[in-house]
Structure formats: C-alpha cells, structure tokens
Design a protein that fits this description.
Elements lengths: L4 E6 L6 H13 L2 E6 L3 E6 L4 E4 L3 E9 L7 H5 L5 H11 E10 L7 E5 L8 E5 L2 E5 L2 H6 L9 H9 L14 E2 L4 E5 L4 E5 L16 H22 L2 E5 L4 H8 L7 E8 L8 H10 L4 E5 L22 H17 L3 E3 L4 H4 L7 H10 L1 H15 L3 H13 L36 H12 L3 H4 L7 E3 L5 H8 L14 H6 L6 H4 L8 H10 L1 H9 L2 H4 L5 H9 L9 H15 L4
Parallel strand pairs: 13-14, 13-16, 14-15, 16-17
Antiparallel strand pairs: 1-3, 1-9, 2-3, 4-5, 5-6, 6-7, 7-11, 8-9, 8-10, 11-12
C-alpha cells in the first residue's frame, strides 16, 4: 500500500475544462476524490491516503506527527503562524512523519509551494512546463489518465548506471522530475525553484553534537522507541522483517508490548552465507512470538518480471525483487497491514569501515584523545596499533573521498560520462570533519531505499530508522564515539543493551547475500547474456558488448564479484523492456 495522490496544476488558470471533466470521471472510477482546490491546483487523493488541512489554505498529504510525540492537531498548533514560509519552518523543526505539504501562494494564490519531508516517505514526482502540468505519487497514475506517455531519457539512464548509489532530481523518464526528500519546490507562472529546507549538516555542527556516550545512547533510545510506537499506533497488524542483524532487532525490540499483532519473518537462502535464523529466532522469542521463515527462490528474479509499476528509474535489483516478492506474499498470508524493516540502519547508526573515526577524533579532540580512538580502531579491525595509526595518518593527509565515483564497468568506452549531479546534502560547510562527510554522503544514498523496497499494494512499508528524529539523533553522535571500545555502532548498541539478546548485541559478523546472487547468476547465465546482448541498452550503444562477451565466456574466478555489476545491468535492461516507449 502506498500514498496515492495527483495534483493538477495550472498557475495561469487556463484550465481545459472538457479534459478536466474526463480526468475527474476517471479518478472517481479509481476511488480517488478531490480534497483540495484553489485557483491554480486541484488535488485528488485515494481513500486510504491520510491528509490534513493546514492554515493559510494549505494541505498535508500523509502522516504528520508532533516532535513531542503527543497527539497532533495541525490546525490548533499551526494556526498562529503569519506566513506559509514560517509554517514550513515550524513543521520541519518541530514535526516529523511522512508527508508532502501543498501550500498556495498567500499573496494572490497563483503560485504553489510543495515541501517533502526529509525521510522521503511520500513519493513526489512532477512534470511542469510554464506553470502547468501535474504532481503525483506515481507515474502509473499519470499514464492511466493520459497526462503522460513514457519516454526514456537515455542520458539520465546512463547517469543512473554510472552512479548507481546517487539519487538526483532527474528521473529516467523525459520531462519527469522528483522533489528530493527535505526539499521544497516553488511554482509560479515563470519559474520552478527548488531549495533544501532540511540539512543534515546542522546536526553535526559544534554545539549540536553529543559529548558523552550516555547522553548519545539515551537520545537514540528515545527517538527510535518513540518513532516506532507512533507508527504502531497507526497500524493494525505488523510483519516485522527480522534479518538477524542489530538494526532490524532494534526496531523489533521497540515493538514489544505494542498494540498491533506482530509477526516476525526471516528470509534464508538455499546457499550458505545469509542464514541468520539463529539470531532472528532469539529476537522473536524476546517478543514472545515464533519466527516464521522462508527460503528465497533462486529462479524468480531472472525471468521477464515486471518492475515496480511506479519505478521512474531502474533501481530495484534482483535481490530486492526476490525479497519484495516473498515479503508481499507473507504479508498477505499473515494478514499484515504494514511491514517494518531496519533499512538504512548501518548508515544512520554510523557504521564506518575505515580509519576516518580516529582521524575525526584527532581533529576534534586532539592527539591524546585521538590515541584512544586509534586503539579502538585497532581492536575493531583486529590489527596492530601501528597499522591503525598509519591508516589514520593517511586519512588525515588525503583529501576527503569523492561523493560519487563513476562505475563504467561493461559500459561502452566511447560514451561521454558526465560528472555526477550535485545533491543538496553535498554542500558541505568549511571545516567539516571527514567522518561527517562520509556519513552524510552515505545518508544521501539511503534515499534510494524508498525506490528499491516494494511490498505490494496491500501493505504499508515502515522504515523507522530513516525517520527524521532518529536520523537527527544519530547525526549528533561523533564518528569516533561510534567505535568506542573497539565495536561498531556503539551508541546504538548501548541504547538498547538491556533489550537485545547478548548474541545479537555483541555480534561482529554479518550475513551476506553474495552467495545467493552468485547462484542466481550461474543458474541463469545464458538467459542474462542473451537478454543483455539483444536488449535496449545494447541497441542504444550503452554497453561494451565485447567485454560482456568475454566475461560470459570466461570462468568466474573465486571471490570475483563482477557478476553483481552484470546483474545490475540485467535488471536495468528488464526495466527498459517494460516501458511502453
């Protein structure tokens, strides 16, 4: 299940009334009703999509919660603000949730401002020209209404394939853009202007950072628990995806004694490497329920499978498709109204796998304190102090790593590879710490989770660890504090030390699905080869056909993971084949 809406926009107020009547009739057939009208916008919502009116003639699509986690009355709390701009600032600073705000211009009503929450929980794509067009939660709505005919933007598709971990405002469909999480879009007859209204850099600045582990852990505990409880109050029954790792276990721990019925589910694979059932079973026992398990299919993801219908870029990979298919079926089988995951926990909780936390400690706290972090680093990575010190010194000397490094593997070498598009969160302040830079770059990549996780039309997807209060609490934790004592994600572990099973709290290993993907590749190698070399990507001269041919004809060396890149190209080809161009 998802938020479903479409807004018809004409800031010049030159409505085609005959066409509008046809659209209204089609939307009514789709169980969507007009909920908001001004001179320049008409907003239609599905019956299951929550909404709230705002002062000043505005509208909030989705779920909007108070930062105090008390019951929230938008009208009562927000009616005192004299301008829409101040109201938006107040919502960003004092509220959270999954929402898009729609606000008409308060001067003459011709302009419109949209604001998307920092977690990106409510989708927001748009096609606007000269102040008219549409804004919607899903491209399929626009195509069904004949408001848009799909056309692939091959230049953007090249960018997606070259920078697979970067989300930008452009989509792989021509004339379709996305409002990025934490941003606002101002529409008037002459211009479209986007600007960030939330920045992660505020929370890593001096004066906002935690100075001790006790306070950091308490802040994380309060934010995660309160967010999970707020969502649990909304939902009727929950399917908890338990991977066995610390992130999903923390979310599950917060569901103990929750009102909704909770079913815990774990996915294993028919090949070694990703069997986490021994850990997931312990966490399920803490909730007083049995663990339901299922084995992922090796064949389901390599056929001619339809991608997520509202995917505006080829993001969902083979593993995500297999998991989504299994969890969607499980939710239907167990009658779950919502699925909860620990998505994004590694980044949010500050998992850094290099020497940058120790480098941050020296820069922020001095050499003496930095030596303690170097010792923590050596324990964490089980190396000597000398090696940890050497790696830390190298980190301090070198420039911060690039936000995005192009991956041109198996791409046509004659292609022009444009520089990575800027993301608003990459606008770093002077004097930033390298660890904060790496965390925030990774946090921007987390925005892709909304694109790759799909659980069908009958189940809400909840990602509590991506919510604004949790992200802000974790950003306040310095990178060096997250490896204190020689463990990773230490503040998050300390926050939930009393409710996690010891085996999960103290584990250092992590399951991997690489073996599963390798088995999928071997079983479907011939089909993957045929699909890639005869498909649209190759027809558009995007691929290095010779390099791919050599790769398929050679024996895959042990531990070689280049097949994962081939699988990514295969899923992109599958997306291309399902677009009616």
């Amino acid at each position: 299940m998802s938020y479903r809406y479409i807004a018809l926009v004409d800031v010049n107020r030159r409505w085609n009334l005959a066409n509008l009547t046809e659209i209204e009739a089609a939307l009514q057939m789709d169980n969507m009703r007009e909920r908001f009208t001004s001179g320049s916008i008409r907003l239609f919502l599905a019956a299951e999509t929550p909404f709230q009116p705002l002062p000043g003639g505005g509208f909030a699509i989705g779920h909007l919660f108070s930062r105090t986690f008390a019951p929230f009355d938008a009208m009562a709390r927000l009616s005192t603000f004299s301008s829409n701009k101040r109201l938006r600032e107040h919502v960003t600073e004092n509220c959270w949730g999954e929402y898009v705000l729609v606000q008409p211009d308060e001067r003459d009503g011709t302009g419109i401002t949209l604001t998307r929450d920092p977690s990106g929980g409510v989708p927001c794509i748009y096609s606007l020209r000269n102040g008219s067009g549409f804004i919607t939660s899903g491209i399929s709505l626009a195509t069904r209404l004949d408001l848009y005919r799909k056309r692939i933007d091959w230049d953007v598709l090249i960018h997606c394939l070259t920078y697979p971990n970067l989300k930008t405002r452009r989509t792989a469909f021509a004339d379709i853009c996305e409002l990025l999480p934490g941003s606002s879009l101002a529409i008037d007859p002459r211009n479209l202007t986007t600007h960030p209204n939330w920045s992660p850099w505020k929370f890593v600045a001096r004066g906002h950072r935690h100075t001790n582990l006790v306070d950091a852990a308490a802040d994380i505990r309060a934010s995660v628990a309160s967010v999970v409880h707020a969502w649990a109050d909304v939902d009727e029954s929950i399917l908890m995806e338990l991977s066995g790792g610390i992130d999903s276990s923390i979310v599950a721990a917060c569901l103990k004694n929750a009102g909704p019925r909770v079913t815990c589910y774990n996915l294993a694979t028919p090949v070694p490497g990703a069997d986490e059932r021994q850990y997931a079973r312990q966490m399920a026992a803490c909730l007083g329920v049995d663990l339901q398990t299922e084995q992922l299919d090796l064949d389901i993801a390599c056929g001619d499978v339809a991608p997520f219908p509202d995917a505006v870029s080829p993001r969902m990979g083979i593993l995500q498709y297999a998991v989504s298919h299994a969890m969607e079926a499980a939710a239907l089988r167990h009658g779950a109204s919502s699925t909860y995951t620990g998505s994004g926990g590694d980044t949010v909780f500050g998992l850094l796998t290099n020497a940058v936390p120790a480098a941050d400690a020296i820069r922020e706290r001095g050499v003496i304190a930095g030596l303690s972090s170097i010792r923590d680093l050596s324990v964490l990575h089980q190396c000597t102090m000398w090696k940890a010190a050497r790696l830390t010194a190298r980190k301090m000397i070198r420039a911060p790593k690039a936000a995005c490094v192009p991956d041109c593997t198996f791409m046509n070498p004659s292609l022009f590879i444009a520089p990575a598009e800027a993301h608003p969160w990459f606008d770093a302040p002077k004097g930033m710490l390298p660890g904060d830079w790496e965390r925030i770059v990774d946090l921007a990549s987390n925005q892709l989770f909304r694109d790759i996780v799909y659980r069908g039309e009958n189940c809400w997807i909840r990602m509590p660890l991506l919510s604004q209060p949790v992200v802000e609490a974790c950003l306040r934790v310095p990178s060096w504090m997250s490896i204190s004592g020689g463990h990773n994600r230490v503040a998050a572990r300390a926050a939930f030390a009393d409710v996690l099973p010891p085996d999960i709290l103290n584990r250092r290993s992590k399951g991997s699905f690489v073996g599963y993907l390798g088995a999928v590749f071997k079983r479907n190698k011939n089909q993957i080869r045929e699909t890639l070399l005869s498909g649209g990507l190759n027809d558009q001269h995007l691929l290095d056909a010779d390099a791919l041919t050599r790769f398929f004809e050679a024996e895959l060396p042990p531990r070689d993971k280049s097949f994962t890149r081939v699988l990514s190209l295969f899923t992109a080809e599958n997306w291309v084949r399902h677009q009616a161009c």
